[in-house]
Structures are given as structure tokens and as C-alpha cells.
Amino acid sequence: MTAVRLRLSAMMFLEFFIWGAWLPLIFGYLGPGGLGFTPAQQSWTLNAFALASLTAMFFSTQFADRNFAAQKFVAFSHLVGGLSILALTWTQSFWPFFVLMLVHSLFYVPTISITNSIAFANLRDPQREFGPVRLWGTIGWIVASWPFVFILTPESGPTAKASTFLVAGIASLLLAALSLTLPHTPPHRRKEGAGVERFAWLEALRFLKTPYVAVLFVVTFFDAAVHQGYFVLTDTFLTQGIGIPQNWVMPVMSLGQIAEIGTMAILGYALKSLGWRKTMTLGVLGHVVRFGVFALLPQKSLVVAVILLHGICYAFFFATVYIFIDEFLPKDARSSAQGLFNFLILGLGPFVGNIVWPGLKDAFTVNGVIDFRSLFLAPAATALIAAELLLFFFRPPQRSVPAAAVH
């Protein structure tokens, strides 16, 4: 591994370590037995990411695209975001907690797309090399979250669980320092004139007029909403539907992220062999198979096996979308274009999913018993429609394979 790829891999590791350190346990920390926030207060806190993904699309990524070196932007963002989440360790009142979480999210969320842009700009062959670099983000998430699952049990007090924010804050400050050693990734400026947008996000939005980009935009929304359904519904299904003990739920669900590591490693070869459309379609179809098994074949061994499809669902669709954007959209709008799709993947899709899937679960619950068959057929059908849209209507122009990628 070259020195540049090593630094880029470390960047991805810390980027997702930060998120993985606090997210798995925040649901139990905010409510009863923790900070005691009301359901509405919990929703506002958890939706800080969705709000940040929207503002990132219009403001933050603009600076990385047109005005600010990307690595310096990431350094500054993680300095401010790191101090904010570090302060959450000792914050227990709702409004200070919400404001600090919002500040952290406003500075952290844009770095998800901008770190992608830094990687794409400094890899010789992004199609082949991005997967092996990005998989270190998944490793970072697992390394951060698993120890807390076993060390901080549901019986742990609020003070112990608050240490997750301490770890996340330290990791963020480390990434701020590391970012200053990353390859220089300057903004791309174009002279303003006819047909040239002053704002990078307007340049990104303009490409939605292109049919294949518009199709990908719609499919990404549906896939993100379905993807969120996995996290919203699976915990209850594993315990109530097939009888997996609660303490094993997180390790079982994490099998999907472990599978993601292997899938990311072969993503470049899949793209060369299958092309954009088939690779993305397989990623969406992974949801169809997973939710189909949940609905129609709820056997413990089969359920655990199809959870491994998470790697295909994420890498073959979401990661491929990021690579596709870098390949097909202008370099001076690349972070804003990434932010536009990040708004769907991290913002609008999960936001809608957080409303639709709990509502469906309540609708299919009678006398406390959930009809999992009917419940899971809904996201399976939604994913199937999205896959058909990709298969029949997604027609990007042909691009030749870079010579460096051919082996």
C-alpha cells in the first residue's frame, strides 16, 4: 500500500469510527434510564443528521468545491465537530444537548462526502481502488461499536454510556490532525460566464435534468428509505420473530457490516465485470432477497445468512453511487454532487423511513402480535420497483476503462 493510500485508509477508518462510537447506543441513552428525553426530543436529536445533510448540500460542500482546499475543510470541520461531541459527554439537558449534536452534525455530515472526494481525487483508478480504501471506514465502525456493545450493557448507567461521546470526540480531533497530512486537494474554480453556475450545488442540481442522473436520484431515495427499514425493524424481528436473545442482536446485525468489508474489497472487480447498471441493480436486489426471506422464510439460520447481504446492499449500490458521481459529474461540483446524494442517503431517505416503517409496524400489529410477513413484503416490494427502474431506465453513457485498471 502506498503512503497516500495508507493515509486515505486511515482517514476513512477515523471518519466512520467517530460515527460508530456513539450511534449504536444513543437510542437507549436518550430515553428512559438515560437522559429521560421525551419522544419528541429524541426525534429532534436523532434527526440532526437529516437537517445537516440538507444544509451540507447547499453550503458546506460549496466551499470544498469552489473556495477551500478539501483537506483543510475536513480538518476544520472535525476540530469544531469534535469539540462539540466531546462536550456531549457532560451534557444532560435537552436544549444544550440538541444544539451540540446539531453543531457536530453540521460539521461532520459534509465530511462524509468530502472525504470521498479527497479519495477520488488522489487515487489513480478510483473504480478499482476506492473499495479497498473505503472498507477501512467499515472496519472503523466495527472497531468502535463492538467493544461498547459488550462493555456498556443496557444496565450501564448514563455516565458510563456518555463515554461514547468522549471516544468519538477524541477520534474527531485525531482526524482533524491527520487531515493536515492528507494530499493537497484544491478547489476547482471555473471562470463565470454563460452556462456556468456560481454555486456548485446549483451545478449539481442542474444535472438532474439528465435522464440517467434523475433515475439514479429517484432510485437512491427509495433505496435509502428501504435501507433505513432494516435498522428500524430488524431488532424487533430478531427478538420477537425468530427468538434471538437481545444480547445477541447487535453482533448478529454486525455480521452484515463484516460482510461489507469483503464486498468493498471486490467492488472494483465487480464494476469492471458487470458495469454500473448491473452492479447497482444487484445492490438494490439484495434488499429484496433479505426482506423476502424475513417475510416468507423466517428460519433462524436463513435470516442470519441473508443479513450478510448487507455488504452487497451497501457496497454495490451506495458506494457505487459515490464512484459513479465522481466519474460522470464535473470535478468543480464533485463535493456538492456527493452532498446532493448524501442528502438522500443520510437525510431524506432515512427521515421518510423513520416515519413509514414504524407506522407500518403499528398497522400490522394486532393485540401485541406483529404480522412480520405482511410488514416485510412492503420494503421488499419497494426495493423490487427501484431495481426495475434501474434495470430498464438507467442508461448512462459508455466510459472506457482506464488502462491502469486493466489486469
Question: Could you describe the 3D structure shown?
Answer:
With 407 residues, the chain is mainly α. It folds into 2 domains: 1-184, Growth Hormone, Chain: A (Up-down Bundle), CATH 1.20.1250; 206-396, MFS general substrate transporter like domains (Growth Hormone, Chain: A, Up-down Bundle), CATH 1.20.1250. Helix content is 77%, strand content 1%. It has 15 helices and 2 strands. The chain has a two-stranded antiparallel ribbon with strand order 1-2. Strand 1 (365-366) and strand 2 (369-370) form a beta hairpin. Helix 5 crosses helix 14, helix 6 packs across helix 11 and helix 10 (211-241) packs antiparallel against helix 15 (372-393). The longest helix has 48 residues, at 249-296. The two termini are 17 Å apart.
| Order of helix and strand elements from N to C terminus | HHHHHHHHHHHHHHEEH
Give the N-to-C terminal Cα separation.
Answer: 17 Å
Oligomeric state, counting identical vs distinct chains: single chain
In helices, the fraction of residues equals over 70%
CATH superfamily of the largest domain: MFS general substrate transporter like domains
Q: How would you sum up the global shape? A: globular
CATH architecture of the largest domain, by name, is: Up-down Bundle
Please tag this protein with its features:
single chain, 407 residues, Growth Hormone, Chain: A, 2 domains, two-stranded antiparallel ribbon
Quick rundown:
The chain is mainly α and 407 residues long. Helix content is 77%, strand content 1%.
Give the secondary structure arrangement, pairings included.
Blueprint: H1 3-30, H2 39-46, H3 48-67, H4 70-87, H5 94-122, H6 126-151, H7 158-161, H8 163-179, H9 200-206, H10 211-241, H11 249-296, H12 300-307, H13 310-328, H14 334-363, E1 365-366, E2 369-370, H15 372-393
Antiparallel strand pairs: 1-2
Helix pairs in contact: 1-5, 1-6, 1-8, 3-5, 3-14, 4-5, 4-8, 5-6, 5-14, 6-11, 9-14, 10-11, 10-14, 10-15, 11-12, 11-13, 11-15, 13-14
